[in-house]
Amino acid sequence: MAANIERLIETIKSLSAAEKFELARRLEETGVLDDNQSWYWTPQWQAAEKEADEDIAAGRAYHYDNVDDLMRSLRARRKQASE
Question: Where do the domains of the chain lie?
Answer without folding.
Answer: 2-82
